[in-house]
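can u do me a favor
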C-alpha cells in the first residue's frame, strides 16, 4: 500500500493482523520499519500498520523537509490512507518521540499511546552523556568490535557494506543478551536500506532546540489520553530520563522489563506482548 502525503511523497506502508488499529512508528531518525516481530506478536490483538518514514527505507526518497511537524503530518497521512478515525500508536526510540508529538497535536485521533524506549521530555543533557558512557562501556566488553566501530566511524565515506557493518556493530550494544547481540543486530539490518543521514542530523538538531521546555511539560500534563510507557531495564539510555514524562502525564502506566535492552520485544517477547495487548484492551 502506498499512502501519499499532502506534498506528494509516497510512503511505504503495510497492514496485518486483526482487531482495533495500531500504527507503529519506527526509530531513527533516518531508519526504517523493523517491526516484523512486533506485528507477529500482536497479530491476534490488533490490526498492525507499519510504515517507513519520509525519505527512509522503502518510502520515496526526497529532500525532506525533516521536521517533527512534517513527520506528524506524514503520520496523519498514513492514518487517513487506512480510513482510521482514531487509532492506537506505538512508537519506539525516536518513534516514541514522534508518536508523543502526534498525540499532543491530535489527541482526539489517538485511543492509546504506547511509548517504548524513549528518552523522556527533558533536554539531551538528561540522558545523552550517560548514554555515550554506557555505549562505550558495553563496547568495551568486546574490544575488537569497539576498535572496528571506531575505525569505521572515523572515515569520511563508507561503502554500503561498511555502513551496514558500522550500524550492526553499534546496534549490537542495544541488547542485554551479549551472546546473541551481534546476530540480533545483523537480523535488524536485513534487509539493509541505508541510514538517511540528512534526516537523522536535522531531526536530532531540532530535538536539541525544542525538547525540554516548560511548554512541552505543560502540554503533556494536559494530555487526556492513556499512555503506557515500556522500558527495558538494561537500555543504555538511562531510564531515569523517562521519569520526566511519567511525572507529567495524568493517565500513565509504566512497565519495565528486567534483562531487556533497547528492544524489549526481542528479549522479552511474552512480557512485551502481554503489556501492549493489555493497553490496547
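np, heres the sequence
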Amino acid at each position: 500500500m502506498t499512502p501519499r502525503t499532502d506534498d506528494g511523497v509516497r510512503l511505504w506502508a503495510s497492514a496485518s493482523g486483526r482487531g482495533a488499529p495500531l500504527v507503529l512508528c519506527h526509530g531513527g531518525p533516518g531508519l526504517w520499519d523493523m517491526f516484523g516481530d512486533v506485528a507477529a506478536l500482536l497479530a491476534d490483538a490488533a490490526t498492525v500498520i507499519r510504515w517507513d518514514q519520509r525519505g527512509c527505507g522503502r518510502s520515496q526518497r526526497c529532500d525532506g523537509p525533516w521536521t517533527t511537524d512534517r513527520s506528524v503530518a506524514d503520520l496523519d497521512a498514513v492514518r487517513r490512507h487506512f480510513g482510521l478515525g482514531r487509532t492506537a500508536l506505538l512508537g519506539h526510540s525516536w518513534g516514541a518521540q514522534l508518536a508523543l508529538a502526534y498525540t499532543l497535536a491530535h489527541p482526539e485521533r489517538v485511543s492509546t499511546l504506547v511509548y517504548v524506549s524513549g528518552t523522556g521530555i527533558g533536554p539531551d543533557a538528561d540522558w545523552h552523556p550517560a548514554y555515550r558512557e554506557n555505549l562505550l562501556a558495553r563496547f568495551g566488553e568486546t574490544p575488537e568490535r569497539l576498535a572496528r566501530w571506531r575505525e569505521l566511524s572515523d572515515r569520511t565515506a563508507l561503502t554500503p557494506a561498511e555502513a551496514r557493518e558500522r550500524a550492526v556493530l553499534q546496534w549490537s550494544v542495544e541488547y542485554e543478551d551479549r551472546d546473541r547481540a551481534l546476530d540480533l543486530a545483523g537480523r535488524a539490518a536485513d534487509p539493509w536500506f541505508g541510514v538517511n543521514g540528512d534526516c537523522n542530523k536535522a531531526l536530532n538538531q531540532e530535538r536539541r532546540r525544542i525538547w525540554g521546555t516548560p511548554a512541552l511539560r505543560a502540554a503533556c500534563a494536559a494530555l487526556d489520553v492513556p499512555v503506557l510507557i515500556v522500558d527495558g531495564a538494561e537500555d543504555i539510555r538511562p531510564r531515569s530520563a523517562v521519569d520526566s514524562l511519567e511525572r507529567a502525564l495524568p493517565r500513565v502506566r509504566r512497565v519495565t522489563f528486567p534483562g531487556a535492552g533497547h528492544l524489549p520485544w526481542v528479549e522479552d517477547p511474552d512480557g512485551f506482548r502481554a503489556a501492549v495487548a493489555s493497553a490496547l484492551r
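The longest helix spans residues 68-81. hope that helps!!
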